[in-house]
Structure formats: C-alpha cells, structure tokens
C-alpha cells in the first residue's frame, strides 16, 4: 500500500490532530532559470507552511542576469523574454523573499541549486546572503523512502501531491507538502529535528564559501572565456542572444572546411566552449565527419597466427587441408560470448548523448550543415 493510500484510510479528525501536532514553520522556495548561469533566475515561487498546512503561496517573474534566455530553458518552463520585460529584477525579488521568510528555515527540492543561486547573486552584488538554514526535500525523501525515485515529479506522484512541474509556485508548494507529509508520518514537531533524525544537515545558505569569477556569468558550470573572446561575448548584444552563448558543445569528428582549432575559436567568439566528451553539462552534440572506418580489435580468443610459411599443428586449414570440426562445449561458447562482449569498443558519443536525453537532459544533436547554419547566424 502506498503512503498516500494509507493516509486516506485514517479518520479525518485524527489526521488533522496529528497535523496540528506536527507544527513547524518553514518556507519552501523554487527558482526557474533563463540560462545556465546560476544568477539567471526568471521566476520565483514560495509556499509558507505552518502547523502542517500551507498557509500562503506566492509567485514572481523577474528579469534574469545575464539577460538572455536559452531555447532549452524556455522549453522547460515556458517563460519567454517578452514575459519578463516589465518585471522586477531578482535583486528586488530577493529583498521581498527575505522579508517574507523572516527567520524561517528554507526548503527546496535539490536545495543546492537555489542556495547556489542566492549565494552567487549576493556575492556578485556585494551583499551578505541570508543566514537562514536551507533544507533539501529531495534528500529527505531519499531517506524516508529508500529505493524510490526522488525527483519532485516522482516523489509527488507517490505521495499523492498535485504538481504542475516547472511552475515555480507549484514546485514550491509540492516541496512544502512533501515535508509536511513526512513530518506527519514521523510524528515529529519541528522540521530541523526531522532532518537531524534522518542524519541530514541544516547548514545556513551563507555557509558555503563562494569566490565569484569574472567569467562566471557565462555559465552555471563556470566556463572561463579566453581573453580574445571576452570583449565580443561580454559586450556584444548579438553575441549574448546567440544560441551558443554560455553553452557547451561536444564536437565528434571533423567539420568540413575547418580545423579543430578554427571550430573552437569560432564557438568561443559566440560565447560557447567546445569539449570532446559528452556528459550532463553538454548542451549541443555536433556530429562531424568520421576520419575513417572503425577498426575492430582482434578477438582475444582467436589463435595466434603462425609464422610465415608454416602451418598450425592443430589446424590443417592453414596448410590447405580439410577443415577439422572439433567439438565445443556449450559453456565454452557462452564464456567466449561474454569475453567478446566485454572487449567491445565503448559506446559512441552520440549514443551517450541520446541516453542522457532519455534521462531528462536536453542535448540538441546537430549535423555539420545545421551546426554551420547556427554558427553563421
């Protein structure tokens, strides 16, 4: 029986009494970003929980910094530049959020993202970040329901919590509901004690030491810009709007008419970075021309070739005689198959990019023609 079904079987009055006893004050928050930069918050949602209930929710749109939207981000949350052109800045919204939160602990699903955004933004503005402790509802759910998927959508579905994923208000409310449900089930009265019970820390938002870098504004993953590209990327309005700005490109193979160094230089001038591997930080995968056919390695089970002009003593086919068919035990065949599978070459980078996309990462795959069209745009 799932937890949400078990809760529904309890008498309504008893459920409310337990919720009142699980009185805990906290504020759940959620940010949506316009691009890879942690400071590029374009939407803020919050939900205040008291006595086991959600008492207040709120939502703001805000102008991001730096002021551009990545297409992949728009696909996630649906917020466009036209939606925030008359909105307040994140600096104004953060002042309001701190006033509303007061001394309450903050809660966020995957709290490292929200805490990092606040710390980075405050460091860039030269102001002190909040001292409120910030708690991660995702880590709490992992402790509460081991083996279950801990993403907000999966956790909310298992607990029976309504969710409009990537709507900042809905995400914040779902995080607050999640913590309230676990408080209720655990029979505890304070959210900090709940986290201590599961061995989780309640560190303040300002606890992590942060040293801002001049080039940090380009990407969430701290991609440094070469000096020759800094002026073009930092101050060119057209460059800041380019799809490659602040992104990571993995180029596999060769691009016709361009050397590897020329490709890297051209992408840097658009504000991006070229790497060889594919991982969760990759935004674009460029499939270039292969330099040649893939040469497979010889099987480890193949017998060594005899010296020139000699024949193998146990294989008459080497000397031109009739083939000898020796009996092979089925177990040996299976063992050889396993050895052969283990000796296969690693999966292609394109296959890895496709795997990451299936896991929820948004990597756009381009061929040479598409790449060059975007590069020249």
Question: Would you mind describing this structure in some detail?
Answer:
The chain has 377 residues and is an alpha/beta fold. It folds into two domains: 3-207, 2-Layer Sandwich (Nucleotidyltransferase, domain 5); 216-291 and 346-375, Rossmann fold, CATH 3.40.50.10190. 40% of the residues lie in helices and 14% in strands. The protein has helices at 3-9, 12-21, 71-77, 81-84, 90-101, 111-125, 137-144, 152-159, 168-186, 191-197, 227-235, 237-240, 260-269, 330-342, 349-358, 368-375; strands spanning 26-33, 41-50, 53-63, 88-89, 106-108, 134-136, 248-252, 273-275, 284-287, 364-367. The chain has a six-stranded mixed beta sheet with strand order 4-3-2-1-5-6, sandwiched between helices. A hairpin with a 7-residue loop joins strand 1 and strand 2 (41-50). The longest helix is centred in the middle third of the chain and has 19 residues, at 168-186. The protein is globular and about 65 Å long. Mean pLDDT is 76; it is low at 7-23, 209-238, 294-302, 308-326 and 336-346.
Based on Cα principal axes, name the global outline.
Answer: globular
H/E element string? HHEEEHHEHEHEHHHHHHEHEEHHEH
Placed side by side, the strands forming the largest sheet appear as 4-3-2-1-5-6
- Domain tally: 2
CATH topology of the largest domain: Nucleotidyltransferase, domain 5
Mean pLDDT: 76
CATH homologous superfamily assignment of the largest domain: Ribonuclease H-like superfamily/Ribonuclease H
* Number of DSSP helical runs: 16
Poorly predicted sequence stretches spanning 5 or more consecutive residues: 7-23, 209-238, 294-302, 308-326, 336-346
Q: Radius of gyration in whole Å, from Cα? A: 28 Å
| Percent strand | 5-15%
Largest sheet data: 6 strands, mixed
Residues in helices, as a percent range:
40-55%
Q: If classified by CATH, what would the architecture of the largest domain be?
A: 2-Layer Sandwich
**How many angstroms separate the termini?**
55 Å
CATH secondary-structure class of the largest domain: Alpha Beta
């Amino acid at each position: 029986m799932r937890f949400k079904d078990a809760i529904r079987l309890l008498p309504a009055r008893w459920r409310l009494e337990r919720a009142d006893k699980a009185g805990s004050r906290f504020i759940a928050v959620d940010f949506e970003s316009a691009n890879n930069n942690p400071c590029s918050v374009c939407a803020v949602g919050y939900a205040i929980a008291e006595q086991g209930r959600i008492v207040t929710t709120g939502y703001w749109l805000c102008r991001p910094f730096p002021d551009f939207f990545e297409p992949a981000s728009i696909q996630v949350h649906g917020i466009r530049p036209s939606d925030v052109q008359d909105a307040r800045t994140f600096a104004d919204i953060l002042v309001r959020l701190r006033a509303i939160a007061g001394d309450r602990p903050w809660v966020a699903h995957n709290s490292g993202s929200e805490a990092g955004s606040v710390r980075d933004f405050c460091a860039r503005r030269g102001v002190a970040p909040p001292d409120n402790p910030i708690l991660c509802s995702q880590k709490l759910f992992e402790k509460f329901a081991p083996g279950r998927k801990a993403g907000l959508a999966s956790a909310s579905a298992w607990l029976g919590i309504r969710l409009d994923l990537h709507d900042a208000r809905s995400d914040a409310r779902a995080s607050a509901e999640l913590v309230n449900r676990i408080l209720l089930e655990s029979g505890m009265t304070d959210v900090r004690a709940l986290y201590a019970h599961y061995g989780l820390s309640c560190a303040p938002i300002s606890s992590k030491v942060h040293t801002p870098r001049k080039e940090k504004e380009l990407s969430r993953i701290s991609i440094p810009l070469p000096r020759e590209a800094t002026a073009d990327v930092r101050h060119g309005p057209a460059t800041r709007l380019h799809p490659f700005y602040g992104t990571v490109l993995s180029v596999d193979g060769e691009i016709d008419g361009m050397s590897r160094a020329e490709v890297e230089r051209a992408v840097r001038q658009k504000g991006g970075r070229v790497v060889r591997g594919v991982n969760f930080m990759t935004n674009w995968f460029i499939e270039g021309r292969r330099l040649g056919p893939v040469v497979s390695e010889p099987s480890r089970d193949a017998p060594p070739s005899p010296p020139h002009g000699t024949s193998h003593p146990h294989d008459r086919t080497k000397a031109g005689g009739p083939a000898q068919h020796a009996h092979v035990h089925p177990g040996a065949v299976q063992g050889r198959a396993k050895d052969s599978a283990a000796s296969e070459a690693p999966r292609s980078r394109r296959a890895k990019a496709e795997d990451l996309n299936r896991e929820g990462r948004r990597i756009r795959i381009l061929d040479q023609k598409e790449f060059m069209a975007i590069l020249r745009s």
